[in-house]
Batch of 2 targets.
Target 1
Amino acid sequence: MRLYDWLLRLYPASFRNEYGGEMRPLFARRLQQGRGAATLGIWLSTIGEVFVNAAAVHVDLLKQDVSYTVRGMRRSPGFAITAILILTLGIGATTAAFSVTDFVLIRPLPFRDPDRLVMLLETTPGYAGMELSAPNYRDWKAAATSFESLAIYTGIAVTMTGGSEPRRLSGATCSADLMPTLGVAPIVGRSFTADDERQGAARVVILSYRLWQTEFGGDPDILGRTLVFGDAPVTVVGVMPREFHFPSSDVLFWVPARFTGGDYQESERTNNKFYGVGRLKRGVTIERAQTEMSLIAAQSERQHPRENKDTGALVYPVRDDVSQRSRLLLLALSGAAGCVLLIACANLANLLLARALGRRRELAVRAAIGAGRERLTRQLMTESLLLAAVGGALGIALAVAAVPLLAQLVPSGLPISSTPTVDLRVLAVAAALSVATGIVFGMAPVGRAGRSPDLDGLREGTRAGGGQKEALRSALVVAEIAASVVLLVSTGLLIRALLTVQELDPGFQAAGVLTLQTDLPLPDYNRVVTREAFYARVVAEVTALRGVTSAAFISFMPMSSFRGGMWPVSVKGDTDEASGIRSANNVAAIRYVTPGYFKTLGIALKRGRDISAGDSRDRQFAAVVSESFAKRYFADQDPIGRHFTFAFADREIVGVAADVKFRGLERKSEPQVYLSSQQVDDDMITFYAPKALAIRTGGDPAALAPAVRDIIRRANPKLPITDVQTLPDLVDRETASRVVQVRVLAAFAAVAFVLAAVGIHGLLSFAVSQRTAEIGVRIALGAQRRDILAMVLSRGVKLSLAGVVPGVFLAYAAGRSMEALLAGVHPADAVTIAGAVGLSVLMTIVGTLAPTLRALRVDPISALRTE
Amino acid sequence: MNEISKEAAGLLPLPPATFHILLALADEDRHGYAIIQDVEARTGGELTLSAGTLYRSIQRMLEQGLLVETRDRPAPEDDDERRRYYRITALGTVVAKAEARRLTQLVKMARAAGFAPGKA
C-alpha cells in the first residue's frame, strides 16, 4: 500500500485530498481479490492507470484554471495588459542586452579549444602591442616551448579583377599553420602547406564562406578556379566555414605569407609586420607563456641590442582582443538592462500584491465554499505562470527583433560575425527568468490567500490591513525610483559624453567633403610620373565639376580603415640619428599628399606654405608637419626651414598644419608629417602612395559621386572605387557605437521612468482607495481639502525622496565605474544629476496626480455608506 | 431546444466510463465501490473501472452537473461513514438519454450499411 500511496501523490493534492481516502480501500479490495501472479498484473495495470488518470486530472485542472484566468483577464484587462507589458519590456530588454554582451565578451570563439589561443606581440616603450618582425618571429618561435603551434598573419587588401567591375577585397596574409593553430579546417578543399610558403610556388588562395557565396554564388566547382588578384593569377584551394572570421569579420580571403632570405635580414628586425597567434600546449598557463616569452625577448635584446632595444613580448588571450571601451559599453548596457529588469520585477511584484489584496474577498469566498489552500495556490500559480509565459514569449520576440539593431555595438576587430544573434543559452535563461518571475510573484499573493479560511476577507468594509505588506510595497517602489534615477543619470552622463565627443575638433572641417578610395595597382603605377599623371588628370577634371572648390589625393583619409603608418623621425643632432629604431617617442604618421590637401579638408595651415606642384623630385624634399610635431622636436625654435630625416631622406619643414585626429576622435594621435607625392623614388614606399581622393564642394558632396566615378573610370577603367562617402559620414562612424548605446540606454531609461511612475501611481492609488473611508471620516470631521492634499502628496514626496537620494549615490558609483566612457564628463556632473532629479520630481508628480485628485473628490457621505 | 438539452448536447459523445456511471446511478444512489461492482455486473465482467478512472470521471461529472454528492444516507445498516454517495441529476438523466439516442442512431446507420444484425 505504501507504493499505492506514493502513486497517489501523482494526482493533484486537491484531488488526492478529496478522493484518496476512498481510492485506497477500493484498491486494497482489488488486491485481495487477486492472488499470486495476478497481483503483479494488478500492480502493473494500476501503475499505468494512475499515470494516465493523474495526467488527465492535471490537464482538467489546468483547463479550468486557464479558462478562469482568461475570464478574469477579460473582466479586468488593465491588469493583464500592464503585467504582460512590464514582463515583455523587462525580459525583452534584458535578453537583447545580454545576448549582445554574451556574443562579444563571453561566448566561446568559434575555434577548437579557444581558451588555449593567445596573441603574441612585441612591446616597445609607449606601445603596448606592436606587430612582430619576421626575424624576431623566427627566433622566438624556435626558442619557445609553451606553444603547440605559433602562426602569424597580417591584413592585406587586393584588387580582384576579371569580374564586371574591379573589386577591392580585404584579406589576410598568413603562415601555413594558421588554420591548424586555430583548429579549423576548410569545408571545401585544403589548408595551406609549407610548400605554399616557398618563394616561387604557385600562388594559392583560400576563400571565406561569405566571398564564396557573394562573389561566386557558392559554386561547388570553385576549387582550382583561377582569380586575378592585382595582376597575378591565384588558384582557389579551399573555402573556410561560414562561422570562421579571422582575424576579423571583414576578412574575405587568406593567402600564404612567403618568406625569402631578405625577410630575415637584421634590418628587417625593426619592420614590425605580423600579428602572432599561438595555441598553448595543454596545461600551460598564459602566465607561464608570458614569463617564457619575456625571457626569450630579453635574450633576443642581448643578441641584437640595437634593433631589439627595449623590445619585450606580450601574450594575452585572443578573447581579450576587445577594447576596454567596447567592453565598458557593453557592460554599461547590461547593467542598464539589469536595472530595467529589477524595476520590471518590482513593479510586477507590486502589481500582483495589490491584486492579491484586492482579491482577498473573492479568494476568501472561494475558500469558504470549500476550495482548499492547495487548490487556490494552484489557481494563482497558473495565473502568474500564464502571464509570465505570454510576457516571456513577447519579450523573447522583442529581443530577437532588437538584437540585430545592436550590431553597431559589436567591435569590428573580433574574429566573430559582425551581426550578433540571440543564442539558445540566453533564450533559455530568459525563459527560466519568465518562469521564475511567475513562480516568485505567484507565491506572493498565495502567502496571503493560503491562510484559509481568511475570515477577514469576508468582513464588509475591511480597512487596509497589513501594514507590513504596505511597507514591502513601498520598499519596492523606492527601489524602482532609485534604479530609474541610476538609469536617468547614466543616460544623461553618456549623452553629455556623446555631445562632448561630437564637439571635439577633429582638426579638419568635414562638411562639404566627399571622399573615396581607389587603388593604383603595381607594377603599372610603380613610377612616380605615372601616378602624377593620374592625379593631375583626375584632380583637374574633378575641380572642373560644378561647385567643386578643390580636390586632392592623400595616402589615407583620417579616421578611415587604415589609421597607422608610423615612421621613425631623426632630427639632426638627435642621439638616435638615423638609427631607424622606432618607439612612441620618435615616430610620426607618414602621409603623402598632392597640392591642395589642407585646403580641401579645411585643415588650418598655422605657419608657412602648403606642399606645392613645385615640390618635385629634383628639389629639396619638403614637409608640412603638424603642430604637435613642431612642438615635440622644435619646441622653442621656429620650425620653418628646419631639417629632419624621415622615410630615407632629408626633409625641410615648409609649413606647420593643425593637428588632425587621424586615429579617431577619442584616440590620441601621433604627430603628423605630410610629404609631396612627387618626392619619392620609383618603386619605393608605394604602400603610402596617395590613393584616397578628397573633394570639397559648395553643394551636396554625395551628389558628386557619380560624376567622380565616371572621371576615374575614364582615366583607368581597371581601378576599383571603394569607400565612397562624405567626410561627415566618416566622422559619424566614430561615434556610431556611442550613439547606439545612448539610444538604447535612453530607451531603457524611458521605460524605467514610465514603470517607476506607474509604480508610484499604483501604490498611491491603492493607498487612497483603501483609505477612502478614513478620508471620508476626516472630511466629515472637518478636515480641509488642503489637509487631504498634504496627506497624499507628502506620501508621494517621501517615497520619491527615499528613492532619489540613494539613487543619486548609486548613480555616482555607476558613473565612476564607466568613467572611461565619459570622455572627460565628471560622474557627478551637476547638470546631469539636476536633470535626473528634476525628471524624478516630474515622475512623482505624474504618479501622484491621479490618486491625489481621487482623494480630493472623496464624498464623505458615500465613503461612509460603504462602511 | 431548451437550455438543459442544449447543455446536454454540448457534452456528447460521452466517454464510455461516464455513460456507465450514469447507468449505474439510474435506479439508486451508490458509493464508488458499488458503482464499480454494478458496472462490472452489467458488462459481465468486461469492464472493471479502476479507482483512478472512477474518481476522475466522478470529479468531472460533478463539475458538469451530471451528479451530486448526496447527504441522504441509505438505511443505517448499509451505511459506511467513510463513503460518499452519488446521485444522478436531472441534467445527468437528460444527458444519458441523449447519449442513448445518439448510440441508437449509430446502430441504425450501421444496420443500414449491413454492419449489424437486425432489420434495416
Note: Chain A has five domains: 2-75, 77-110+326-462, 126-309, 469-501+730-867, 520-719.
Target 2
Amino acid sequence: MSDIEKGFEKAVKTAKVDLPGDEHVRLYQQLGIFANWLEPLLAVDTTGIEPIILGHNSVNVLREDFAHKGVMAELQEAAPEFDEGFYLVPPIIE
Amino acid sequence: MEYEVVIGLEVHVELMTESKLFCPCPNHFVPEPNVHTCPVCLGFPGAFPRLNSEAVQQALTASLALNCDIALSSYFDRKNYFYPDMPKGYQISQYYEPIGSNGHLTIEDDHGSIKKIRIGRVHMEEDAGKLVHAAGGNGSKVDYNRAGVPLVEIVTEPDLRSPGESRRYLEQLKSILQYAGVSDCKMEEGSLRCDANISLRPKGSETFGSKTELKNMNSFKAVEKSLEHEIQRQSDVLKSGEEVISQTLRWEEDKQETIVMRSKLEAHDYRCFTDPELSPLVLTAEAVEKARATLPEMAEARAARFKSGYNLPEYDAGVLTASRCLADYFEACLESYNNPKEVSNWIMGELLARLNAAGLEADQSSFLPEHLAELLQMIDENLISGKIGKEVLEKAFESGQSPRTVVEEEGLLQISDQGELEEIVDKVVAANPDSVEKYRVGTTKVIGFLVGQVMKETKGKANPKLVNELLLKKLKQV
Amino acid sequence: MDLRNLSVCQAAEDIHNGEYTAHDLIEKTLENGSLLNESLNIFIHQAGVDALEQAKAIDLRIEKGEKLPLAGIPVAVKDDICYGVLPTTFGSGGFSDFYSPYTATAVERLMEAGAIVVGKTNLDNMSLGSSTTSSPKGATINPWDNSRAAGSAGAVAVITGAAMVALESDSGGALRQGASSCGVAGLRPTGGLVSRHGLNLHSSSFGQIGVTALTGKNIDAVIQVIAGYDQYDASTLISKDESILEVEPVAIENLKIGFPQSLIEGLEPEFKAICQETINLFKEQGFEISDISLKMLPEALRAYYVIAQAEASSNHARFDGIRFGSASEADNLEELYLKSRSNILGREGRQRSIYGTYLLNKGNFDLYYRQALKVWNLVRREFGLALTGCELLLMPVVKNLPPLLSEGKDLISSWEEDIFCAPVSLSGLPALSFPAGMIGELPAGLQLVGPPFSEKTLTTVSDIVVRNKQLFPHGKA
C-alpha cells in the first residue's frame, strides 16, 4: 500500500463513516487528485512565518463562575434513545 | 540481575468551582442522571464553549502550589476521539501549551531522605460523562452530568522508584491541592483519579524499559498494591527471559490482580489542534506574581503557625496539619472552645483513630467541630468527667447526635450533688471496713479502691474530685 | 404589496404609522412564499400560525407605543442557524424532526427588534457547498433561469419577495455567490462582529453569519441590530463603547478603490465586461481606481480547504446519533457510529470528515495543516498590504454562471469556484457582494472588501452603484 492509501484507509477508519456503493473508491481516487491540487500550497516558502493559531483577536474571554439550574426537557426530547434518565447506546465490543 | 523500578503518575483532580469548565451547569455530584446538562456540555451544534474564570484561577493556583513555571499565554486544544461519554467527539484540553510546567513537590524516599519529584505538566481539561453498562450485555447507559466538569491533570516525570514513594507522592499532592483550595482530592469519590506508568530496567541503566499503564485504582492503597503486584509480574516476565509487553492493565480490587485492557502498541492519534472557538489565556508576569504571593497557606506554614500561635508542640502541629480538613476542623473547634492543647489532645487521642477506622475525612463525619467544643465545655463545667466524655464522644460519633443529646438520653450527667454523694460515700465506707482499717494504718493507696467503688455505685457518673474530697473527710471522721 | 419596493426602514415606519400592520405584511409574505416555494424550493420549513401570532404581538406592542426598529420585517433564516419555533435540519437527511432547544443569538436579536422569521431556507448538505445542489431536499431553483441552481435560497427569497432580508452563513463564499447568482446584495461581516452562536459551524475559523437583502441600506438596518458582543461566542469582540456599530462611512468623495487588474485577465469576456462597466461607474462617481496585487489567491484557496476540512472533521464528530439526530439500527456501538454518521453527514459530510481526518493525521499535520496556517498568515498580510493606499478593494465573486441543475461538477472544480471568495474569508475582512450587471438573462455580482468594521462604507458605496439599476426576474417565479 502506498502512503496515501495507508493514510486514506486510516482516515476512513478513524472518521467512523460507512461509505455506500463506490464512494470508497471514488474518495480514494479523488484524494490523489486533491493531494496533487495541494502542491502549490506546499510550495509556498513559509520560512520564518508563524502559523495563525487563532483566527480571531479576542483574548481572555471568561465567564463568571455562576451555576444555572441545568437540564431542559427539550434537550432529552432530541435524543433518539433515552430511557429512565439515561441516553442509551448499543453494546460496546472491545 | 538487579532491577530498578521506574514509576510515573498521571493524576486528574476535579476542581471546586460552582459550574463546569465551559458551561454554567452545576459542578457537584447528584445521583439523578442527566440533570446537570445543557446544549454546550451535550455538544449541540452551535453551542460554543465558554471558559470559567474561577477554573482558570484554581488551575493557576494549583500550578503555583506545585512550583510550576506558568505559561503567560496558553491555549486550549482539541483531543479528537470517539466514545459515547465524549459528547463533542473531542475533549477540550491543553496539549501544546499547558498552564503549568516544570514543577515539583518533595517527598521522603524509602530511606527517609528528602527527594524531589518533578512534575512535567499541569493543565486544564474537561471531564467526560459516565458510561454505565446495562445488565445482560444490553448496551450501555450514558450520564452526562460529569461531562464538562473542570479537571486539572498533573503528570510527573518518571522519578518515582517504589510503590511506597508513589503513595507518599499522592498523599503529599493531596495535601498541597487541598491546602491550595482547588480540590478536595477524595479518590473514593472520584475527585482524584490516578493512572500509573511503570517499567523495570537493569540497575544503572539509562534507558527505560517497556512500560505498562495501570488503571482503575480507587484508593492510594490500591495504587500501592497494584504497583507491587505489577513489579512482581514484570520481574517474573523478565526473569523468564521474556520481554514485557507495553499494554494497559486494569486493576481488579476484589481479585487483587490485573487484567489486560488493551494493547498499547499503537498510540492513539488524537490529531490535536488548537480550538478555534476559545480565546487564548494571556497572563501578565505581574498577575502571576500576585497570584503566587497570595497563595493559600500551605501545610508547612500552617503547622508553623499552629506551633507559634497556639503554642502547640511540633508533633501536634504536624498531625493536625496533615490534611487541610483536619486543620480546618481544629481551628473551627477553637472558635467555640479556646484551649488549643486540649482540643489537640482530644483530636489526636480520640477522634483521629475513629475517623481512620471509619475511613472518613475530618469534614465527612457528623461529629462536628462544634460538637467537640460542646463536649469539652461540658467537661469543664463538671457536667461530665473526662472518662465519661470519651464514652460520649464514641456514642456521638456513631449516632450523629450532639454530645449534649447523648448525655441527656443516656443519663450520663455527672453527679456533683454533695448530699447525694455523701450518702454513697457513707454506704461504701460502711461496706468496706477492711479498706477503712487499711487506710487507718497508713495504706493511703486504698483510697483509689474506695473511689473506684463509689464510681461503680454511680456507674462512673460521680464527680471524681468531689468523691475524693468526701472520702478523705469521711475517713478522717471514722 | 410588493415587498421588493419597500425598504426595511420604510416598512417599519409604515407599521409604526399604522399604514398597515405587521400582521398584514407577514400574511402577504407567507402567501407569496408558499406560492413561490412550489416552483423554486426556497424553504425547508415555512412559518405559519406561529409567525402570524408573533406579528400580532408586535402590533400590540406598537399600539402601546413601543419603538421597534425592525417591526414586522419578514426574515428568512438559513436552516443551519438554530430557531426553536420551527424544525432545524442543518441540511442533513438525519435531522427531520429536530426542534433546537435554543435560538441563535442573531435571530433572537432580530426578533427582539420586531422582525419575524417567515421560514428556514434550503442549503447544501450540512452547509457544505455554495449552490444548494447537494441539499437532501434538492436544489433551490434560480428564479432568473429555472435550469440553474440559485446558490443561496435566502437570496431567492429576497429577490422574489418571499422575505425582505435573509440571515445566512458564509464560510467559503456561499452567501456572496448566492447573492451574485440572484442579483441581490450579500454581506459577509468582519470576523468578530456578528455572533455565530446557534450556527452549525463546519469551519470554526471561517464560518460567519451574514445578511442578504436587496440593498446595502437594508443590510445595514439588520447589522445594527445583530452585531456586537455576545457572551455565547468568544470570538465576538468586546466593544466597550458600541462605536463599532456606528462607524461613519469614509467620506465617499475621492474614494480610492483597489482592483487587481491581473486577476481579470483570466476571466471570461462577459465577466471581464462586468468588471469594466463597474470600474467605469466608480470612476464616474469620482472614485480613484488603483491597481493592487493579490498574488496568493490559488494558495489561499488551498489553505482554506485544508483548514476548513480539518475543522469540519472535528466539528462533525459530535454527530453520532446518541444525543440528537437520527440513530440508525445497530447491533453494537461501532455500527451505530458508522451508519448514523453516514446518514447524518451525507455525501459531502462524509467526504470532508475523511479528508479532514487525513489532513490532521500524524505525518500530514505538519505537512498540510501547519503549512496552511502559515500560508493563512501570508494571505492576511497580502490583503492588509493591498488595503494600504486604498480604502476598499473591488474583486470578482464568481467566474462562472450559476451551475446548471443537470451539471455535476467534480470536487476540485466545484472548489475552484470559491477562488475569489474563500481567500477573502481568510482575511477576516468584511465583504459585500453586490449586483454589478447582467450576463444575458442572468445577474452577476462583484464584491467590495474593506478594512475591519467598514460595513457601513461597503453598503453605502454598493447602494450608489446599484441605485436605479435594481432588476427583478420577471415572470420567472
Note: The first strand of chain B starts at residue 3 and ends at 14.
